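Forwarding the complex inputs:
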Amino acid sequence: MSVAIQVTDLTRRFGDLTAVDTISFTIEQGEIFGLLGPNGAGKTTTLSMLSTMLEPTSGTAEIMGTDIQKDQDGVRKAIGIVFQDQSLDEELTAWENMDFHGRLYRIPKEVREPRIEKLLKLVELFDRKNDIVKTFSGGMRRRLEIARGLLHHPRVLFLDEPTLGLDPQTRNHLWQYIEVLAKEKNITIILTTHYMEEADRLCNRIAIIDHGKIIALDTPQRLKDSIGGDVVTIRSPDSEKIAAALSASWISHIDKEDDEVRITLANAEQHISTIVTRLNEEKIPITSISVHKPTLEDVFLSYTGKTMREEEVDGKEAMKMHFRRRRRH
Amino acid sequence: MEIVYTIWLRSMKRFVRSKSRIFGSIAMPLFLLVFLGLGLNSVVNASSLGQDYVMFLVPGMVAMTVLFSSIFAGLQIIWDKQFGFLKETLVAPVSRLEIMLGQTFGGATTAVLQGLILMVLSLFIGLRIQDPVGFLVALAFMVLVGIGFTAFGIAIASRMEDMTGYQLVMNFVIFPLFGLSGALFPISSLPGWLMPITLFDPLTYGVEGIRFGLTGASQISPAVCASVVAGFAVAMTIIGAFLFRKVSV
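Prediction (whole assembly, two chains):
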């Protein structure tokens, strides 16, 4: 595997606010790489720098071996980007939006037209090709933007919150497209999201980013494993006896709080029947039992001590202050 | 060149599709022409003009149409910024200059087309075009006015974050430019202290140039008009391109 994106100590400051703070990471070709974090964490700023829309304050990055500051046009030819906010011309048709993009990237007509047709079919918009974008739903616009981002055959595709504001069904649909794309076209995809399930489902590797810093970077599975495995919670009137009754090598940790016992272990599904059998043998009544698989939300919580939502409030405040400052200048 | 053409083409497509905008931008000068022109025609002393007041007014209204349409086309950049489309062009491997020129020529073309529509409508209230050469002279002036003021609009748009300043620009920039230009009255009839100010207004030379082309009479020599308007168009294109270079989204 060769390297698609190499980021070294990338930093961006806006006044006193450090939006992106000396981040470094490497993305392999064909990988789907996620930047996960609350709003205002620095995801979009990172993407803006990588896509040459914003100059870094310091640090460097290379995309397919091209430096983002030394050869902006080289980078722009290699990347496709779907912005967080819509960027279609609503008064043009789907086809015209695609055609405009193709011409901007100097794709000759004989290549451009069949390719537009193929992509519009891929995102199931071909039968709406002559309709004005104004009449399209949010999901259709998103699909059109993704098709447009692929028109010039980018080696790297940036997706900034690709499913923001879409209903669950459309979101699922889009996820399928993204998976197919990465597999069939061997495109490297870097996406930002603050949806945990999205990152979990799509990404080969995830960088959790908070206050401009990468606080964890690994595969979703390993990130979840890193915080200690699954949790089985048992409630029982005889909760004090449970710890003594259960002792096995696969149990890593047992906590008791009032009538509740939290057992941390690997592969809870495999062991739950053993736990129930043991407790029955010991005649310990069970009021309730539940299994909790760790999510990326738990990972975020364990690394930052805060949930994503709490962090979002902070992030928004920081952004507001930043914009107020910028206006005054 | 193909990039300039691509952006020009987009302007054309949007123009053809926006019937209400075309009608809206012609309505105002057309009403002025009909109400003021026909209403004041008999009151205004025609001898100092060398022609009917209504015929005097036609070139001014054509210039007004081109002025308003072209500045509006330049300000289009702000909408593109707000609706996100500008990002799509800025992230493409094309130069800022190509984008700016495409937008300028696109805006100028739509403005000239609207001016021509008004000119055609003026035929019904008595406009007689003297000769084809005169028409071409008027057209050339319209093109230069269109380019100059679209670029001017882009220059303003490059420094504006959103449309909140639009009214300000309309009332304090565009309307004075129009009012001082001699589109509604001969500049020689102004008091002596106001006259020099009108000579600082580039639109004055545009109006006079178009008037020379359409009616054969003007108060400023056509050669002076041509050089001032051409100089204005070039200067604005350079300033607009310079300011647009720094646009970020």
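Chain A has twelve helices and 14 strands.
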